[in-house]
């Protein structure tokens, strides 16, 4: 399975969030070519500001693995993680993060600048399906402003 395939799965999760009136962000955690955790934003549904896609996908992956660290796993997420999610990803020791689009307003880089908040061994990749991800988020907020 390719990065493209797994990012498509994250985008599918984002669509689930959108259908529920949530900000359309989705995430999947993959290890050895298998999805071990899925998540999409559930902030409104759970009335919980920590119910971000990344947090839900990480929790599912920890439960699946029966472990608190994921050094061999990859997180695919449709938008740059916020500082809260970056902290959780740091503590998870996740091996790789692939995010589709930057989040200039709420992404971790807004706070950390060029300094990575992730574990020193974590590899970061960006841009895969970025335009599609951003267009979903922009359309969601445009519709809310009407």
Uncertain residue ranges: none
SSE-based structural type: alpha/beta
- How helical, in percent, are the residues? 40-55%
Q: In percent, how much strand structure appears in the residues?
A: 15-25%
Number of strands: 5
Mean pLDDT: 96
Biggest β-sheet: strands ordered side by side in the sheet:
2-1-3-4-5
Query: What's the gyration radius in Å?
Result: 14 Å
Tally of separate helices: 6
SSE string: HEEHHEHEHEH
Overall 3D form: globular
Biggest sheet statistics: 5 strands, mixed
Distance between the termini: 40 Å
Family: Belongs to the cytidine and deoxycytidylate deaminase family. ADAT2 subfamily.
Enzyme class: hydrolase
EC number: 3.5.4.33
Organism: Chitinophaga alhagiae
Q: In words, what does this structure look like?
A:
The protein has 146 residues and is an alpha/beta fold. Helix content is 44%, strand content 20%. The chain has 6 helices and 5 strands. A 5-stranded mixed sheet has the order 2-1-3-4-5. The longest helix is centred in the N-terminal third of the chain and has 17 residues, at 3-19. 38% of the residues are buried. The active site is at residue 54.
């Amino acid at each position: 399975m390719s990065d493209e395939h797994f990012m498509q799965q994250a985008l599918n999760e984002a669509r689930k969030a959108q259908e529920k009136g949530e900000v359309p962000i989705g995430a999947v955690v993959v290890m050895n070519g298998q999805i071990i955790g899925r998540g999409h934003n559930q902030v409104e549904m759970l009335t919980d500001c920590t119910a971000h896609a990344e947090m839900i996908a990480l929790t599912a992956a920890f439960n699946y693995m029966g472990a608190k660290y994921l050094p061999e796993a990859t997180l695919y997420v449709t938008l740059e993680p916020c500082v809260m999610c970056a902290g959780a990803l740091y503590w998870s020791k996740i091996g790789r993060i692939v995010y589709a689009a930057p989040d200039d307003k709420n992404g971790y880089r807004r706070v950390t600048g060029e300094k990575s908040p992730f574990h020193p061994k974590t590899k970061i990749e960006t841009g895969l399906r970025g335009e599609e991800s951003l267009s979903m988020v922009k359309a969601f907020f445009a519709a809310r402003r009407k």
